[in-house]
Amino acid sequence: MELTTEIKQYVNRSVLCWLATVSTENVPNVSPKEVFDYYESDKIIIANISSPQTVENIKRNNN
Question: How many domains does the chain have?
Answer without folding.
Answer: 1
